[in-house]
Design a protein that fits this description.
304 residues, 9 helices, two-stranded antiparallel sheet, mainly alpha
Length: 304
C-alpha cells in the first residue's frame, strides 16, 4: 500500500496556491488488508500437506521396496541359482518404478504432464506383482495378497501423489492418463463378443487412416519389354499362350515333324522324350499335350 502526496487545486474563490493533499493509491501487486496469507506467506493453501504426503510416499516406497525385493530375489534365485544376477534382476523393476516416480514428480512440480512416466510406473508395478505372485503360494489367497499387494499399492499411491502435485501447481483439474485407454479396453471387449464385425471395422478404420501416396506426375511409366514373337502353328489348339512351355513344345514338334494332323500317334512318347527337355517341359505333360493336339488337329481337318 502506497501513500502518495499530490497537489490538488482548492475551490475557494481566492485562488490560493494548491495545498498538498494525502491520497491513497493501490499498486498492481498490492492486496487489501487482511488478504495476505498468514504471517505474510505466499504459498498456496495446502502446500505443506502436499509436501508431507510426498515425503511419506518416499518412506512408504522404501518399506514396500524392501518387502517386494525379498520376494523377487527368491523367485529369480530359484530360476537362475546365481546370487549376483538374482539381486540385479530383482532390483530392476522396483528401481525402474522409483526412477519413473521421480521423473513424474519432477514434471508435476513443473506443471507439466507426465502421462508416459505414470503409465510406466504401473507397468513396472504390474511386472513386479507378477514376479511376486510366482514366489507366492497360489493355493492360498492370503499368500497371493501378501506378495502381490506391495508393488500394486505403491503404484496407486505414487500415481495419486503425482496427480495431486500437478493439480496443486496448476490450480486446475487434470484428466487421468488412463482416460485414453478406455476406448482400447472397450474395443477389446467388443472383439471378444463380436470378432467378425469388430475385425471388419478395424480393417476399414486402418485403411482410412493409412492411405497410400498418390503417384507423382514426374514418375515415368515403366518401359515394357517387347513380347517375343512365337511361331504359331495352325494345328495348335486354341487357348494356349504363345509364351507357355506347352506352346513352344508344340511349335517345335510342328517345325521338325510337320503339321500335327499328320503326326503318327505311335511316335508321341519318343518325340516327347526327345523334345520336351529342350523347352523345360515335363515328359508326361508333353505326351498329354501332344496327343491332345494331334487328335484336335485331326478332328479339325476331318470337319473341314
Amino acid at each position: 500500500m502506497l501513500h502518495i502526496v499530490t497537489a490538488a487545486k482548492p475551490h475557494d474563490p481566492d485562488e490560493h496556491d494548491p495545498a498538498p493533499i494525502l491520497r491513497l493509491a493501490r499498486g498492481g501487486d498490492s492486496h487489501p488488508p487482511g488478504a495476505a496469507g498468514p504471517r505474510g506467506s505466499s504459498h498456496r493453501p495446502g502446500g505443506v500437506l502436499v509436501a508431507v504426503a510426498t515425503g511419506m510416499l518416499f518412506v512408504l516406497g522404501v518399506g514396500l521396496f524392501a518387502v517386494s525385493l525379498d520376494a523377487q530375489y527368491r523367485y529369480v534365485f530359484h530360476a537362475k541359482h546365481q546370487s549376483a544376477a538374482s539381486w540385479v534382476e530383482a532390483l530392476a523393476l522396483d528401481v525402474g518404478m522409483a526412477i519413473f516416480s521421480l521423473l513424474a514428480l519432477g514434471l508435476a512440480r513443473a506443471g507439466k504432464p507426465a502421462r508416459v512416466e505414470r503409465v510406466m510406473i504401473t507397468v513396472c508395478a504390474g511386472a513386479s506383482g507378477v514376479m511376486n505372485f510366482a514366489a507366492a503360494n497360489d493355493a492360498s489367497p492370503k499368500s497371493v495378497l501378501a506378495y502381490v499387494m506391495p508393488p500394486v499399492f505403491l503404484a496407486v499411491v505414487a500415481d495419486r501423489v503425482v496427480s495431486v502435485v500437478r493439480r496443486h501447481v496448476l490450480g486446475e483439474q487434470e484428466q487421468s492418463p488412463w482416460h485414453g485407454a478406455m476406448p482400447l479396453v472397450m474395443y477389446l471387449l467388443r472383439l471378444i463378443l463380436a470378432p467378425p464385425s469388430t475385425a471388419a471395422g478395424l480393417r476399414r478404420w486402418l485403411l482410412v487412416k493409412t492411405p497410400l501416396p498418390a503417384p507423382t506426375a514426374s514418375a515415368a511409366p515403366a518401359v515394357e519389354a517387347a513380347p517375343r514373337k512365337a511361331i504359331v502353328s495352325p494345328d495348335r489348339p486354341a487357348g494356349l499362350r504363345a509364351e507357355s512351355k506347352t506352346a513352344r513344345f508344340l511349335t517345335l514338334v510342328d517345325e521338325q515333324y510337320g503339321p500335327l494332323a499328320r503326326f503318327p500317334l505311335e511316335r508321341v512318347s519318343r518325340t516327347c522324350a526327345e523334345l520336351a527337355p529342350q523347352v523345360g517341359l515335363d515328359a508326361g505333360a508333353a505326351r498329354t499335350a501332344l496327343r491332345r493336339a494331334v487328335l484336335a488337329a485331326r478332328d479339325g481337318r476331318r470337319d473341314t
